Amino acid sequence: MEFTILFLATAIVMLIAWRGQRPLALGLFGAVLIACVATYLHHATDTLKLSF
Amino acid sequence: MTRTRAITLNALSLYGVALVLAAAYAAQFMLQELPCPLCLLQRILFAALAVGPILNIRFGPRPSHYAMSLLAAVAGAVASTRQVLLHIMPGDAGYGSALLGYHYYTWALLGFITAIVLLAAILMFDRQFEEDKAVLPATGGAFAQTAVWLVIALTAINVVTTLLECGFGACADNPLVYELLKHAA
Q: Which chain B residues are within 8 Å of A32, Cβ to Cβ?
């Protein structure tokens, strides 16, 4: 579900960047990027089985 | 590089992002391979790469717009590097099919690194940030407008297909079926 929301948020940021106000697009982009990093960290809890 | 030429290059980069998103769909539908959570995150970050060029086309090139794309590219490179490392063990077949010998996450890593290099390269051209009397229309002309709407449309379609794949819960680590379609069938 979180990925659907992230795609939706990205599409909304694109629409605001194209039609809306620049500061709003910048702020929302920052929020989406932080959410992406948080999602990555949430999913990056598996142990890496490195070969060295 | 003039402002007008920079806007054209930004439009071209949007077509590049659209190509990546379309290629991901080709693998998803033609090979019946559903994207894993990390794969979806990489797609989102490819889409996020497009916000900077959209702003450049609408408001004119600014270093801050390129910086946004750089941040998205670095985040994407981190995510794809992790997926490469997840499958680096000898004997690990990797996730999904390989294209020309590399899996999609390896191509994604190469794509994000290429984006970082290209963004750094285009930032070296200072003249694009000066006022240009012969600028394109505020929305960059038909070529740029088509690119913007193409990328927005592909991102919007990803909203629908991701919802179909993951449903309203957490996305499966190794998805085999579309969750919402499974219940409908």
A: 48
* Residues of chain A contacting residue B158, judged by C-beta atoms under 8 Å apart: 7
Reported as a pLDDT band with limits 50, 70 and 90, residue A49 is low
ipTM: 0.90
pLDDT of residue B101: 85
Closest CA to B51 of B10, B82, B20, B91: B10
Residue B31 Cα to chain centre, angstroms: 20
A23, B17, B73, B82, B155 from B34: Cα distances, Å: 36, 20, 23, 19, 16
Q: What is the token pair recorded at B159? A: 């909203």
pLDDT at B48: 97
Nearest to A39 among B41, B47, B59 (CB): B41
What residues have CB less than 8 Å from B98, skipping those under 6 apart? none
Domain edges within chain A: 2-40
- B67 vs B45: CA distance, rounded Å: 14
Q: Which residue from B43, B58, B158 is facing A18, i.e. has the nearest CB?
A: B58
